[in-house]
Task: structure prediction
Amino acid sequence: MDVQNREREKRAAELILANTELIFQNLEKEKRAAELIIANEELVFQNNEKEKRAAELTVANKELLFQNEEKEKRANELIIANIELDFQDEEKEKRAAELLIALKELGYQDEEKSKRAAELIIANREVLVQKLEKERRAVAEAKKDEFFNMVSHEFKTPLTNIKAIHQLLEKKTDKADKIYPFLANANNSIQRLEKLIADLLDVTKINSGQIDLNIAAFYFADALTNSIANVELSANHHEIILENAVELLYSGDQFRIEQVLINLLNNAIKYSPQANKVIVNAKVANGYIEVCVQDFGVGIAAADISHLFQRFYRVSKTALQFQGVGLGLYIASEIVKKHKGTFSITSEPGKGSRFCFSLPL
Result:
């Protein structure tokens, strides 16, 4: 019994120890559980804190992103503003350059205006000088024409007496006499003086507008044949060939038309001393009578052709070689103009010339 009691007591004691151990363990577990609860609460708190921090970081990140976006926008706006400023600066520079060019242009225009003004002043002076020169020349021409007219009339009477005496001497002198060739030469000189006086009188009449045409109907072929016959009397070495005549009535001044033809024929013979013929051609075309006189002589340079109808003009290269005063073509052209006609000349130096005039029907 004692052994059993002791066993029981031992078992009871072990149970008490075991219970005490269990109680202790339970307390430890409770402590651990309380600690775990506290730790969980701490973790929950930390997690909450972390979430709060995370939320704050998210907000902060969003704020930073917004700020960065704002900065980028500001940066872009600044870039645009800088580009705009650069563009404005370029525009200002361009405007400044344009203003400089405009100022230079204005300066140039002012200079041009000044130059033009100076040129106008010079031109006005030149016009005034030319006007005075024209007036002076007109006065000089009038005096010259008056002088020519006076001289021509003064020469005419004594020349008529000389011609009469010469004709008397020529009749009384035998052609076999030694002095007869001198009389013949004197006759040529008298004829040249008569022509010169007639030309001078015609020039003064033309310049004073006093040359009148005796208009009448005549056969144009008669003017051609009369002129050729007149010139052939003194043309010792040339044959004048009339290739075509105009058989019709023409209303004009026959004497003046013949004067034109005789002048052209005499010139053709005079300026072709090495040739032996002169060709005359007349035709009707397009309502005009056209007459051409062609020689095969020295010809005329192109630079001289436009001056041939000027008073006293003579080609310098032939002036000393051939006699003349340069009035024949001037008078001829004025007579043709009076008939409302025109002159034309074609020539080649060394090959000859072709003088044509046209008269309206």
